[in-house]
Amino acid sequence: MILSCKNICKAFVTNTVLDNISFWLEKGDKAAIVGINGAGKSTLFKIITNELEADSGQVIINSMTKLGYLSQNSSLSSEKTIYDEMLLTCKDIIDMENTLRDLEIKMSQLSHDSEAMDSLMKSYSNLQHTFEINNGYSYKSNIKGVLKGLGFCEEDFSANISTLSGGQKTRVALAKILLEKPDILLLDEPTNHLDIKACEWLEGFLCNYQGTVIIISHDRYFLDKIVNKVIEIENTHSQIYNGNYSFYIKHKSINEDIQTKHYIEQQKEIRRQQEVIRELRSHGRDKLIKRAQSREKQLQKINMIDKPSYVNDSMHLKLSPRTISGNDVLTATDISKSFDNKHLFSNLVFQIKRGEKVALIGDNGTGKTTLFRIISHQLKQDTGDISLGAKVQIGYYDQEHATLNQNNTLIEEISDAYPNMTSGHIRNTLAAFLFTGEDVFKRISSLSGGEKGRLILAKLMLSNANFLLLDEPTNHLDIISKEILESAINNYTGTVLFISHDRYFINKIATRVLELTPDKINNFLGNYNYVTEKKQEEEKQRLLELENSINSKNNNKQIDTNINSSTKKDWLKSKDQQANKRKLDNQIKKIESEIHELEKIINSIDDQLCLEEVYTNAEKATKLLEEKTNHNTQLESLYEKWEELLVE
């Protein structure tokens, strides 16, 4: 065990944020802390790192354990260049390297003193061994690899950190923490300023990281790829799930169903007992009254199950534009754009049809937002033509929230925009975007960035617009808000073009993906997983064509043979890896199926134990409890096998 949190409690004034939070992690665990905004996730991080003191409870970490913490708004304050700042993480290695150079100079100056030479040689050999096992010869390439992985190019390395944007400074802070290789990495929203390519690089880095990683993130795809444990904080309490994010979602739903069932059954039993008590008392006889009193005492001893209070995040509203557009919504032909000799894109040709939900992806700096501004006529393209179809009206979401009146309440904001809407219709719409009860009377100035984003999206979907342009709509949204947005867009009958780095969101929404590159747009007829599969197929085809090309060459046979052997080996290795992955996936699915069946049996036993004829019969109850214990042992064994396969 490398970290243990025992009964952590924290309150701010009268607001309890964390109550008896307990979990433990082993070395190498990759854990996610999940929960709605305000659940206390970042507070827990600050308690673990001693930035905050818990009101009660313990955080147990070995004194020799090194922590690395990236807070949500981490940014370095430094006058150094990016590269020089990274060199600070390698101070011990650089000191060893300088000492080795000094020893080399001293040895070169000794010519006759063999005893002194032997002593220097011995020191040099020992230090060189230490230097090698600490990867001393690769520290520069490690720095470059991490910086490039997080989206910096070599020209950026010499940039002064003080001149960088907030997002760039956060990426520098992340790079520095990764290079320091702490025993426990605590990362609060590490993907906030990363494009898809950088997210994929970070996923690979963290999956192979030897230390323990704890992540707070709203990037569900990212969590799915990395974590083997999910710690959920809900209503101040914690619940542990031994699996990735999808496993957590599946089993949380099962747990909620079980808890709801147990609550309903218990309430039925309580009502039945209360009815019996009333009946006994109604007769007025002492003997029956005593029996009623006895039942009342038994009823008071029942361990009451709390009423489930799950957020209703389903979308019950069918959102349709007031005006239906023509079938051809947008046609773009030969679009290009440059700024001050900086080329963004050219030769862009694409179409969008009515009802499509299209994702626009691409590396940072490729011009996605610029293309949105061209489509919405906020900016003029250098060449080409943008043609909107019949009755197409654009609604634009740009994260700036400039269209909101900060002095309005939510209900006033909708009413001002749509004065003919009834109060009931407004409330139903706001409820669909998770604004319920007294929330509708909040001032907009008091809302969080995510709440303002949801309000703007609600207004957009009620507007005359039938073609929505959404620029990073999931930024600053917690997971529940993202699910609300997904439901809203999936229920929207108009057309949507959206920019997003959220691959889970793209998978849920996109019917098609456009990938923006400097000289064209690549069209993929599916979601993000489909894009990944197609690119893997293209890479496999490229290797195959390269192999065929190499085999057809006759000149320089020795070189051809070496290249061919290497390429073929890589290709065969790729085939083997894919076969192994399929085999592993099948094993995982089989174990998940066994887990599901075993949990159904355990749930059935739980249901039986709630029956009066069972819990009043000691022999039956004991037998069922023994069965449950055996099944739980089997279940734990299956979970262990499942975790082992996930790590492979």
UniProtKB/TrEMBL annotation:
PROSITE patterns: ABC_TRANSPORTER_1 (PS00211), ABC_TRANSPORTER_2 (PS50893). Residues 3-260, 330-543 form the ABC transporter domain. The keyword Flavoprotein does not apply. It comes from the Bacteria. Pfam families: ABC_tran, ABC_tran_CTD, ABC_tran_Xtn. GO terms for molecular function: ATP binding; ATP hydrolysis activity; DNA binding. Keywords: ATP-binding, Coiled coil, Nucleotide-binding, Repeat. PANTHER family: ABC TRANSPORTER ATP-BINDING SUBUNIT (PTHR42855), DRUG RESISTANCE ABC TRANSPORTER,ATP-BINDING PROTEIN (PTHR42855:SF2). NCBIfam families: ribo_prot_ABC_F. This is Thiamine ABC transporter substrate-binding protein. It comes from Vallitalea longa.
